[in-house]
Amino acid sequence: MDLGLDLPQKRIDAFVKSGAWVDRTLFDYLDDVLAHDPDLPAITDYNGETGQSTSLSYGELDRISRRLALALIKLGVGKRDVVSLQMPNWWQFTAMHLACARIGAITNPLMPIFRERELSFMLGFAESKVVITPHIFRGFEYKPMIESIRGDLPNLKHAFYVGGAGADDFATALLDEALEDTADADATLATLRPTPNDVNEVIYTSGTTGQPKGVMHTANSTLSHLKNWTTHHHLSSEDKVFMASPLAHQTGFLYAILMPVMLGVEVVLLDRWSAPVGVELIQKHGATFTMGATPFLSDLVEMPNVEDFDLSKLRTFVCAGAPVPPALVQKQSENFTFKVLSGWGMTECACPTICSPDDPNEKVWTSDGGPLPHSEVIVHGPDGKPLPQGKEGILKVRGQSMFVGYLKKPEMHGTDGDGWFDTGDQAFMHPDGYIRITGRAKDIIIRGGENIPVVEVEDVLYRHPSVAEVAVVGIPDDRMGELGCAFVTLQAGSSLDMAGMIHYLEETKTAKQYWPEHLEVIDEMPRTPSGKIQKFKLRDMAKEFSR
Q1: What percent of the chain clears pLDDT 70, i.e. is strictly above it?
Q2: CA 416, CA 481: separation in Å to the nearest integer?
Q3: Is the torsion defined by CA of 347, 353, 359, 361 positive or negative?
Q4: How many CB atoms lie within 10 A of CB 373?
Q5: I need a surface site. Which of 23, 68, 87, 171 has the fewest CB within 10 A?
Q6: Nearest CA to 109 among 13, 204, 181?
């Protein structure tokens, strides 16, 4: 498969020479940990389906990932083949990424909430050879869904289910045989060991063109960022990470799969967010660092009996994806010892701007941080020229953490000859170089830190027989950041209510995450003289529905 990679040798040479890229793979870091102490704890997960917790040491994780890698080779998986992981925060996710990366295969994280409509496109476009899902998660059975779309996915050769039964059970198919003990196992894996510039991740980001784009990353584009990130946050081998953000989201992937291995520390995983459970685990394991969207922070701070728990070891809570309400930070600072830090990032570039642990709390709610070393941001006007501080324009970013292209869509890379990437976000810059995101040129809703692709939702609703026109906008929400509001005009003599809209979205197998929380039927859309729908007017109307 031609990936459409945009990674010229001059970029590699310049970044390595300047020290922007570490030029190491995850296995170089893993080898360091194993040489130090293979018995160090690596992962503890909490499986909400089974009620069981699993803990693995780094030695065990290494052994399991080598076994999985060799099993993938037996299945015909090779360099640049895509393995899709639609899994919750379970240990198998990390083990599978290590297995894929060992043999040059590409991990494709997929959110567990995706259903037939999204998966048909994502698995098909990536030409995924293997998909791994839960047998059941949150009451949903995945195998019937995968089987219903396999006929349209000629490249999908294998599907396995964690916690299933029979030949396609994950453990039965991939872990039963101790392949790592065979005579040629080490030599086989050694010949396939990747370079720091091999693509090892393709993760979809919500687009505005109606289809998601597959963001490609390498070890250099991710681990280099994490090296500066860990230094910035004063993280070391003495720390412990707690993560409830999905591993299938770039936040979870970077900071709960890759970062712990780099540091040689334990990560504690929770597969479904619950403030009482999360607080209990943070206390039990002595977690020092966590990261999540505003709802996670809000739920923790507002938990009625949170004072009964000892969170004194928690030092940092990074909150990104939506503005952090001032009242929330004030309440947190009055009642907790950990520091809340706001940041900005994208799937394409990780989190290149972040507040400092030494910043006053006001910085958290008035900015989205300043750039890390080897990352730069500028604010441009419509003419493409940089704007003075305080003036709102389009945010551009460049540096060590930038992706290496969109899968099979090199024409959409959006990066100029000087390496500047147009984020589509509107922002202004403070005098100290910190930025503040003020809006989005992209037509998306950010709900709980997750991008909701408005165009996709509108496309589905347009097909409803009662709908003449539809426009989806965000409703401000204190907890989630934004919720979705669908404004529709109807065909003559037709009707549509909230229950009918939900039933239709369910029938069309649209991911529940995309469902608008509010439906408003109007007589006509507000328009510009040229006929374009004036979404800013709809957003003003939607503010009335905030709760």
Answers
A1: 97
A2: 32
A3: negative
A4: 14
A5: 171
A6: 204
396: pLDDT strictly greater than 70: yes
pLDDT at 325: 81
Cα distance from N-terminal residue to C-terminal residue, the chain: 48
Q: State how far the Cα of 371 lies from the Cα of 225, in Å rounded to an integer.
A: 11
* Chain centroid to CA 477: 21
Q: Is the pLDDT of residue 440 over 90?
A: no
What per-residue string of b and e applies to 220-249 under the rule 16 or more CB within 10 Å gives b? bbbbbbbbbbbebbebeeebbbbbbbbbbb
In whole angstroms, give the CA distance from residue 170 to residue 157: 15
| Domains delineated in the chain | 58-194 (3.40.50.980), 444-545 (3.30.300.30)
Check if the beta carbon of residue 404 is closer than 8 Å to that of residue 7: yes
Q: Within the chain, how many helices (H) and strands (E) appear?
A: 18, 26
Read off the tokens for 100. 């894929």
Q: Cα dihedral sign for 213, 244, 457, 139? A: positive
pTM (two decimals): 0.87
**Which pair of structure tokens corresponds to residue 524?**
């006509």
Question: What long-range pairs does 411-420 form, CB within 8 A, spacing at least 24?
Answer: 412/213, 413/6, 415/6, 419/11, 420/378, 420/396
Q: What is the DSSP string of 12-65?
A: HHHHHHHTSS----HHHHHHHHHHH-TTSEEEEEEETTTTEEEEEEHHHHHHHH
Could you report the per-residue pLDDT of 195-214, keeping only the tens digit for each? 999 999 999 986 444 578 99
pLDDT, residue 318, reads 97
Q: What is the pLDDT of residues 492-538, one digit of tens each?
A: 899 999 999 999 999 999 988 899 999 999 999 887 655 667 888 89
DSSP at 533: B
What pLDDT is stored for residue 441 in this prediction? 67
The answer to whether 421 and 340 are in contact (CB under 8 A) is no
Q: What is the mean pLDDT of residues 156-183?
A: 97
Q: What share of the chain is helix, strand, coil (3-state, %, to 5)?
A: 35, 25, 40
Beta-bridged to residue 519, according to DSSP, are: 486
Q: Which two tokens stand for residue 26?
A: 């995850």
DSSP code at position 445: E
Q: How far is CA 380 from the centre of its chain?
A: 27
18 class by beta-carbon count within 10 Å (0-12 exposed, 13-18 middle, 19+ buried): exposed
Cβ partners under 8 Å of residue 490, min gap 6: 466, 467, 468, 496, 521
CA 40 vs CA 6, 421, 522: distances in Å:
38, 40, 60
Distance CA 142, CA 133 (A): 7
Helix (H) or strand (E) holding 191: helix 185-192
